[in-house]
Amino acid sequence: MRKQSYSELWKGQNWKQLRKNLFRLQRRVYKAVQAGDLRKARSIQKLILKSRSAQLLAIRQVTQLNQGKKTAGIDGKTALKYSERFELLERLVSSAENWTHQGLREIPIPKKNGGTRMLKVPTIADRAWQCLAKFALEPAHEAKFHARSYGFRTGRSAHDAQKQIFNNLSSNKNGINKRVIELDIKKCFDKISHKSIMDKLIAPASLKTGIFRCLKAGVDLEFPEQGTPQGGVVSPLLANIALDGIEEIHPSVRYADDMVIFLKPKDNSEKVLNKIKAFLAERGMEISEEKTKITK
Asked: Cα separation of 38 and 137, whole Å?
């Protein structure tokens, strides 16, 4: 095959049509979960993993569109030639249902308070698989996620969270007398228990195995049962899956691992915090005492 024809083949894909094909499958997953038919949802998720449209879109997402596309994984690759993209497609076709993760490249990132945060970057191939997995998982969980969580969800943004806060604290809601707990979860991504994610995952067995391997690829040896790699494509979704339901404890707004809880004058902040601590403890996490504060 001439070199040029690979690029022509890649650029000649009808991306709009591929997105439609994927969206049609995702909508079926969403509706099946809403109707409570998880068996049907899982079989459509398998179709997404096998769908050529989804596979091509996943490769395009991680090689062309994502902001971190130039960050190399453990194999040192920062970009894929057109021919390599099709090789990766072949790999996804043959082994999307039995994917093994390579190791992660660790990049220390300094934080404001002098500490460091470890960014763990998967290889481009692993990112493509994670993106494909996300295509299959997201619609199933979107059907169940709480309405007041706004971080890393399709069609939602920080502005929606701000609006929700404004609506809760405006003068016609007697906002002047309310207090607010600003909640910070200690090392959320490093501490999430794998069991709490795996128990809640709506996915066929093959996808569950892949996600489990993905979690294990990024573990800290001190806590082999905890953590999702920061830098993984699917990590924010997994964090949302583990934390879902925390919003029901008390009126609140959550954006990923940041949360604002609204207290009326009669509400007992300690009781609320204890319930949240219990919720987080089940998932292997705890509140960061120094960053969590009650404000008027």
From this structure: 12
Closest by CA to 243, choosing from 209, 197, 184, 207, is: 197
pLDDT digits (tens, 9 = 90+) for 169-228: 888 888 888 999 999 888 887 888 899 999 999 999 999 999 998 888 866 656 667 777
Q: In 222-246, which positions are buried (b, 16+ CB within 10 angstroms) versus exposed (e)?
A: eeeebbbbbbbbbbbbbbbbbbbeb
Q: Can you give the pLDDT at residue 171? A: 86
The Cα-based distances of 66 to 76, 195, 210 in angstroms read 17, 29, 22
**pLDDT band with cut points at 50, 70 and 90 for residue 2:** low
- Exposure string of 130-139, with b = 16+ CB inside 10 Å and e = fewer, is bbbbbbbbbb
Helix/strand/coil for 58:
helix
Query: How confident is the model at residue 71, as a pLDDT?
Result: 75
220 beta partners: 223
Instruction: Please state whether beta strands 105-110 and 116-121 pair in parallel, antiparallel, or not at all (unpaired).
Output: antiparallel
Range picked from 95-99, 119-123, 185-189 for highest mean pLDDT? 95-99
| Cβ-Cβ contacts under 8 Å for 240 (sequence gap 6 or more) | 141, 145, 149, 151, 152, 153, 256
Please state the pTM of the whole predicted model: 0.91
Distances (CA, A) of 207 to 133, 178, 259: 7, 45, 30
**E strand segments, 31-185:** 105-110, 116-121, 179-184
Please work out, in degrees rounded to the nearest 5, the angle formed at the alpha carbon of residue 84 by the alpha carbons of 83 and 88: 125
Pick the closest to residue 130 from 83, 221, 190, 66 (CA basis).
66
